[in-house]
Specification:
Bound molecules: 2-oxoglutaric acid, fe (ii) ion
Shape: globular
Order of helices and strands: HEHEHHEEHHEEEEEEHEEEEHH
Number of helices: 9
Number of strands: 14
Radius of gyration: 19 Å
Strand content: 15-25%
Structural class: alpha+beta
């Protein structure tokens, strides 16, 4: 367990309700390697991928070229026509919103335990001077099903569990389509990536996040800069307010909100498997003075017991192996973070 890890004296939501100024431990640290805090950088021209074209015989080729270019330059894209209707997504957003609107005493039942990420609360604290994020979140392991810790799954609103279970299964299917398209875009056998994720114990985690309005958006981040440790992350944004930013070529860009799109970004494990051809982008979330923001991030990860590494077909004389193989990247990533080391650098050859 991390020394000093405990739940915050007050949630970000409660501070926003009480009109508190953010305490000093929430203040952005200008001495960080990813540059200053800009609340309105230019919009990211992140490509839009029409999922319905990825497997259509006549339109597939152009969409795969677009996908490859998106993942080699940005490491992310906006997925549209993914099969989930506007009303379905709005219902999901509504359920998450209802959970966050419950009184604190009710949400407290699902508080995460000290030293563990799962449950309602904040990020774990690893060191005294760790900057805090202006957000509250519910973090759940969704798959494999037999590893669900239902004591952290809200019973209120009544349809929470069933809604999240259904969304889990849908995201799992969409992820397989994306994995297959990513393989095809690199001229690899279709199941090349998906089989590393879906054989036996594929892992899916969900983070349901509330970024309450913040009185000091130019001094406080909703979520600090990071890359995801996942294979891929599928993010449902709040249609009413922007906040997510991606770093590209040393510059920050705001990700535009497209109401019914899923924002897909790669995580470190895809950068490793693709031998560095695809990027796992650094991203962060800024806050807003007037508006709160709710997002749902779903992270797919391979079986932690399985060794992952660059796929053989992407290693040759011109492109030698960039990464070592690694098992249980989640734990490895966590250990690196505690030592102040970047996990992706630590697996470089
Ligand atoms: O809330 C967002 O827009 C991004 C969330 C995110 O990057 C994460 O949970 O890893
Ligand atoms: Fe992220």
């Amino acid at each position: 367990m991390a020394a000093g890890d405990s739940l915050p004296a007050k949630t970000a939501q409660q501070m926003a309700i009480d009109g508190d100024q953010p305490p000093s431990k929430y203040m952005f640290n200008n001495n960080n390697k990813f540059g200053g805090l800009q609340t309105s950088p230019p919009f990211a021209p992140v490509p839009i991928i029409d999922m319905s074209r990825l497997f259509s015989c006549c339109k597939q080729e152009t969409e795969l070229v677009k996908l490859r270019s998106a993942l080699t330059t940005w490491g992310c894209f906006q997925a549209v026509n993914h099969g989930l209707s506007d009303s379905y997504l709005d219902n999901l957003r509504g359920v998450i919103k209802q959970f966050f609107e419950l009184p604190l005493e009710e949400k407290r039942k699902y508080f995460r335990e000290t030293g563990s990420v799962e449950g309602y609360g904040n990020d774990m604290t690893y060191s005294e001077n760790q900057v805090q994020d202006w957000c509250d979140r519910l973090f759940l392991r969704l798959l494999p099903q037999d590893q669900r810790k239902l004591r952290f799954w809200p019973k209120n609103p009544l349809n929470f569990r069933e809604t999240i279970d259904d969304y889990t299964m849908k995201i799992k299917s969409i992820s397989v389509v994306i994995f297959e398209a990513m393989s095809k875009s690199l001229d690899l056998e279709e199941s090349c990536f998906s089989k590393q994720f879906t054989e036996q114990h594929d892992v899916l985690q969900g983070r349901f996040i509330l970024y309450p309005p913040c009185p000091a958006p130019d001094q406080v981040l909703g979520l600090k800069a990071h890359s995801d440790r996942s294979g891929i992350t599928l993010l449902l944004q709040d249609p009413g307010v922007e906040g997510l930013q991606v770093l590209n070529d040393g510059k920050w860009y705001m990700v535009p909100v497209i109401h019914d799109a899923l924002f897909v970004n790669l995580g470190d494990q895809m950068q490793i498997m693709s031998n560095g051809i695809f990027k796992s982008p650094v991203h962060r979330v800024v806050t807003n003075k007037e508006k709160g923001r709710i997002s749902v991030a779903m992270f797919t990860e391979p079986d932690p017991n399985k060794e992952i590494g660059p796929v053989d077909a992407l290693v040759d004389e011109k492109r030698p192996r960039v990464y070592k193989t690694v098992k249980n990247y989640a734990v490895f990533n966590h250990e690196c973070f505690q030592k102040g080391v970047i996990a992706l650098d630590a697996v470089k050859i």
